[in-house]
Design brief:
Structural class: alpha/beta
Order of helices and strands: HHHEHHHEHHEEHEEHE
Strand content: 15-25%
Largest sheet: 5 strands, parallel
Number of strands: 7
Oligomer: single chain
Helix content: 40-55%
């Protein structure tokens, strides 16, 4: 009798407190979780780690050396991915980070290029931004990828050392100048001779990740790859 009662209670709760898709904001069916079935099929996958790797590597070409680079989605203005990441960053839906990490991590664990990853490092946010938001939006994304790749997860090595206004309000040139040399490093010996994966939410100009790499690249025998939630093409 207990199981039918639980199911009935769940149905009643759903009737009065429906859940909504994190991408399209439409109500979810009872058997759907976080994303509706339609969005799971129509979200624009980048497939960068399979056939489109050159597109994201081109962003960093001639600027910093990377081993591999990928993004889960193609970011399109006013599209589903923009709404998904907006819900993650500004509406408290941190569970999106978990889901996207599991999604991308499952794909990367099957690829030889990413099986050599030793450690996953999130692009950090300033402690003031962390206090405002309550979480780093890429933390659980990175943790889930690290689990899939059986790699260590380090969120205390890179530090954001200057506080900038929200980058979405700036043009590309200002976003570039606002992110140059704003990161510091500690406990770098943990990364000696390691292949690391830097994770972030969106790559636009690549300036933020480039700044992180410029701080890390002096570590002895380090190799650096990149994985993000989305790429603006």
């Amino acid at each position: 009798m207990l199981i039918p009662c639980i199911i009935m209670l769940r149905d009643i709760l759903y009737l009065f407190y429906p859940l909504y898709c994190a991408a399209c904001d439409n109500p979810l069916n009872k058997n759907e979780r976080l994303l509706c079935t339609n969005c799971r099929h129509v979200l624009p996958l980048g497939n960068y780690h399979n056939v489109n790797a050159k597109k994201i590597e081109k962003v960093f070409y001639g600027r910093v050396k990377i081993e591999n680079a990928t993004s889960l989605f193609v970011f399109q203005k006013d599209g589903l991915v923009q709404n998904l990441i907006h819900n993650l960053k500004y509406r408290g839906k941190e569970e999106i980070s978990n889901e996207l990490g599991k999604w991308l991590g499952h794909e990367l664990q099957q690829l030889k290029e990413y099986q050599s990853i030793d450690a996953v490092i999130p692009v950090p946010i300033h402690k003031k931004r962390l206090k405002e938001r309550g979480y780093n939006q890429v933390e659980k994304f990175g943790i889930e990828i690290a689990k899939k790749l059986q790699a260590d997860y380090h969120d205390s090595i890179l530090k954001k050392i200057s506080y900038n206004k929200k980058q979405s309000k700036h043009g590309k040139l200002n976003r570039w100048t606002n992110t140059v040399e704003t990161f510091g490093i500690q406990n770098e010996s943990l990364l000696y001779n390691k292949h690391i994966l830097i994770v972030d939410d969106i790559v636009t100009t690549g300036a933020t990740i480039e700044s992180c790499i410029n701080v890390l690249k002096h570590i002895p025998n380090i190799k650096i790859s990149i994985a993000t939630m989305a790429l603006t093409e």
